[in-house]
């Protein structure tokens, strides 16, 4: 074994271990917020660096680590192939930047409503769970990864324990518990059918199973992952629960959680059940419905965060579309789209947090004149918004073009429908984004409609209810002297000349959002090489042999050395 | 693989009861539903391990007579996870209770505002000139009293 390879292998468990150990340390350091902040940033920076090394290290062949040196089918394996490492690098980069945003916003600072500073430990546990899910080479370990990240997400979503968050948290927790139980039932069925949970071994043995049984198991797993990824008939929980959380929490959820579901769908689709026309057909119809219905939902909303939640659901459809085509071109485009979407969606939710800070609301019925109030914020919104809408030459356009090309190559009637749906969804998304832009950013302040008295009371109740208390309360603490004089600028009422001056944005939050926008633009710049990378990942996935030989090849090695 | 019919029947009953409880409005019943569903799934995992046999300890029984130890390990993990989730759910339910003195799931905020808007639009359709819409302000007081959110929604609907 050459030393470079062993180095990469020994790095494999670190993306899971480091955040977990960091979470423990952060909990111990709860009394010292400054140290705690530096610790979390340090840990996540290290994980990003390791993920970058893993991307390079897995370029030739998938890297495998057998935990505790138990050979492959017996022990747990961690596998880093190109799909996992690309996902890991993207998600950890976004996680790190959103953490900086959260520190800027002060979600992490303890205030009266969160007596124990649990944000940092929980956030790190979330990162560990995501990393474990991506690197797992074993179906049950994937389940454990899911549970770790879900448990952390339950806590983050209900942070502060206010009425609206507890209400949203209940829906979220119950839906996700059910999806986990469906997943566990799927694991039981897989084990009953093939007698193993090692992904590589399942893929070898599944072909011998009766096609009817295969389809049943496949559909159970797809249902579980479909709920987590928010694919259409199973997506209703998402727009109800995400918008109530604190802005950085929503941003990181939008970027990561649904994508872990998409990752699992890609993995089961390509590795475990490669030729299953029935499931592919179902996925295509689901993808079409997810795209169009999500986009229509986005248009109907008048709250920025809810608009974004619906576009999030809608664009999951694009990824499912690529996976359902089951061609290397389709899967490659889907992976590219995942990378693009993680970045852009997280960016937009961060921007929504800034809009809320500056305008005092996220409702388009109460926002106006933001472009004049803060030109920088307008730019920060505009770039990712048109990127999401798919305006060339940005990465959103490249991803959609790749998917449309793959669909046209496929040539079936359903694929043509999907191509049409993808183009339509792109336009509808652009319309939804433009609507927010026109209402919140461009509309002069004096054109704000007079609110219905009931709605004023209703919305104010929401605030009194403490819908965003952690953020507002902590904003003061974090920024010290920097008061949020700009807040409630958008609230109805007379506006003095003074308030028309550009509003100062919180510095750290803006810098973090700016960095996310920059990452989105960088994806456009490196779109060529990245596309080559995702295409190679897709080729490896669809041929399946590199993954299986990597897992069992090494197991054979170890048996010989013993 | 072979499995006990009784076990399968038990799993089916537990799944049915679990789904029924899960769909209830009372949060305590939802929690019970989650627990019952969790146990049903755990039994399913156990039954996936094949026929029952001796404890999987080397030397106690011939290997062929042993039951599958892997499924037991899986279920142990699953039980721990379900316990954690149940504890969290219980704490949320307790939180709902301290906020609202209510065990039932309240109507979603967004649903309430949509319903409010719909009711108002109908009102406007009926009488174009009456757009003041101040006739339903009483529900605000209800909400201040806490826990009467649904009364407010009902008021808007009326």
From TrEMBL, chain A:
Keywords, alphabetical: Cell membrane, Membrane, Transmembrane, Transmembrane helix
Membrane-spanning intervals of the chain: 12-31, 38-59, 79-104, 116-134, 140-160, 172-195, 215-238, 245-266, 278-300, 307-328, 334-355, 367-386, 413-434, 509-531
InterPro entries according to UniProt: CPA3_Na-H_Antiporter_D (IPR050586), NADH_UbQ_OxRdtase (IPR003918), ND/Mrp_TM (IPR001750)
Q: Which residues form the NADH:quinone oxidoreductase/Mrp antiporter transmembrane domain?
A: 136-425
Q: What is this protein called?
A: Na+/H+ antiporter subunit D
For membrane topology, the record states: Multi-pass membrane protein
State its location(s): Cell membrane; Membrane
Give the UniProt family note: Belongs to the CPA3 antiporters (TC 2.A.63) subunit D family.
Q: Say which domain of life the source belongs to.
A: Bacteria
Question: Is Metal-binding among this UniProt entry's keywords?
Answer: no
TrEMBL record, chain B:
The superkingdom listed in its UniProt entry is Bacteria
Q: Which UniProt keywords apply?
A: Cell membrane, Membrane, Transmembrane, Transmembrane helix
Q: Where is the composition biased (Low complexity)?
A: 146-158
Report the InterPro entries cross-referenced here: CPA3_antiporter_subunitC, NUOK/Mnh_C1-like
Membrane-spanning residues: 6-23, 30-49, 69-93
What main location does UniProt list?
A: membrane
Region of interest (Disordered), residue spans:
118-158
Membrane disposition? Multi-pass membrane protein
Q: Where in the cell is it found?
A: Cell membrane
Say which family it is in.
Belongs to the CPA3 antiporters (TC 2.A.63) subunit C family.
Protein name listed in UniProt = Na(+)/H(+) antiporter subunit C
Tell me which species this is from: Actinomycetospora aurantiaca
């Amino acid at each position: 074994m050459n030393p470079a390879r062993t180095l990469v292998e020994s790095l494999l468990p670190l993306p899971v271990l480091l955040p977990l150990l960091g979470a423990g340390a952060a909990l111990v350091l709860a009394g010292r917020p400054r140290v705690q902040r530096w610790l979390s940033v340090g840990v996540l920076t290290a994980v990003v660096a390791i993920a970058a090394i893993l991307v390079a290290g897995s370029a030739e062949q998938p890297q495998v680590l057998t935990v505790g040196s138990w050979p492959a089918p017996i022990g747990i394996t961690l596998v880093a192939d190109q799909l996992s490492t690309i996902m890991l690098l993207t998600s950890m980069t976004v996680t790190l930047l959103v953490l900086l945003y959260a520190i800027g916003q002060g979600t992490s600072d303890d205030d009266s409503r969160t007596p124990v500073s649990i944000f940092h430990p929980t956030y790190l546990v979330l990162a560990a769970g995501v990393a474990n899910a991506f690197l797992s080479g074993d179906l049950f370990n994937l389940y454990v990864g899911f549970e770790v990240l879900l448990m952390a997400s339950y806590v983050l979503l209900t942070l502060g324990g206010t009425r609206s968050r507890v209400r949203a948290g209940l829906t979220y927790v119950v839906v996700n518990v059910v999806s986990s139980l469906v997943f566990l039932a799927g694991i039981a069925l897989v084990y009953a059918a093939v007698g193993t949970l090692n992904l590589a071994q399942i893929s070898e043995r599944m072909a011998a199973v009766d096609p009817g049984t295969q389809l049943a198991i496949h559909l159970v797993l797809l249902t579980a992952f479909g709920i987590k990824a928010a694919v259409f008939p199973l997506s209703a929980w998402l727009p109800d629960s995400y918008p109530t959380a604190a802005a950085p929490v929503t941003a990181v959820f939008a970027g990561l959680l649904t994508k872990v579901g998409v990752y699992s769908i890609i993995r089961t689709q390509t590795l475990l059940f490669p030729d299953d026309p029935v499931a592919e057909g179902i996925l295509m119809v689901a993808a079409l419905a997810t795209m169009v219905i999500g986009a229509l939902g986005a248009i109907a909303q008048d709250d920025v965060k809810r608009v974004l939640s619906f576009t999030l659901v809608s664009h999951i459809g694009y990824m499912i579309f690529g996976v359902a085509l089951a061609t290397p071109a389709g899967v490659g485009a889907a992976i590219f789209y995942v990378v693009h979407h993680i970045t852009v969606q997280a960016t937009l939710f961060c921007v929504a947090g800034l809009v809320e800070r500056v305008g005092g609301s996220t409702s388009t019925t109460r926002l106006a004149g933001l472009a004049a109030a803060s030109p920088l914020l307008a730019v920060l919104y505009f770039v990712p918004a048109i990127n999401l809408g798919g305006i060339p030459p940005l990465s959103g356009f490249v991803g959609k073009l790749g998917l449309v090309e793959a669909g046209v190559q496929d040539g079936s009637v359903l694929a043509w429908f999907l191509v049409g749906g993808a183009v339509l969804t792109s336009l509808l998304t652009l319309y939804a984004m433009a609507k927010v832009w026109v209402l919140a950013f461009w509309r002069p302040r004096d054109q704000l409609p007079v609110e219905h008295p009931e709605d004023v009371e209703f919305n104010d109740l929401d605030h009194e209810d403490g819908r965003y208390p952690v953020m507002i309360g902590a904003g003061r603490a974090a920024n010290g002297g920097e008061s949020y004089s700009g807040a409630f600028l958008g609230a109805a009422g007379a506006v003095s000349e003074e308030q028309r001056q550009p509003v100062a944005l919180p510095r750290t939050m803006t810098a973090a959002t700016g960095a996310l926008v920059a990452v989105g633009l960088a994806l456009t710049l490196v779109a060529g090489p990245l596309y080559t990378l995702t295409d190679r990942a897709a080729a490896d996935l669809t041929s399946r042999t590199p993954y299986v030989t990597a897992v069992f090849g090494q197991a054979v090695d170890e048996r010989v050395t013993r | 693989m072979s499995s006990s019919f009784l076990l399968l029947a038990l799993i089916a009953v537990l799944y049915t009861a679990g789904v029924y409880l899960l769909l209830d409005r009372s949060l305590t019943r939802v929690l019970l539903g989650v627990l019952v569903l969790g146990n049903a799934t755990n039994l399913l995992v156990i039954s996936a391990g094949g026929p029952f046999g001796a404890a999987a300890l080397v030397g106690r029984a011939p290997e062929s007579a042993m039951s599958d130890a892997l499924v037991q390990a899986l279920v142990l993990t699953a039980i721990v996870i379900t316990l954690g989730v149940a504890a969290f759910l219980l704490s949320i339910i307790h939180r709902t209770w301290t906020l609202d003195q209510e065990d039932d799931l309240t109507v979603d905020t967004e649903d309430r505002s949509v319903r409010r808007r719909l009711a108002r639009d109908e009102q406007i359709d009926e009488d174009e000139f009456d757009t003041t819409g101040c006739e339903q302000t009483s529900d605000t007081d209800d909400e201040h009293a806490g826990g009467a959110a649904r009364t407010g929604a009902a008021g808007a609907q009326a």
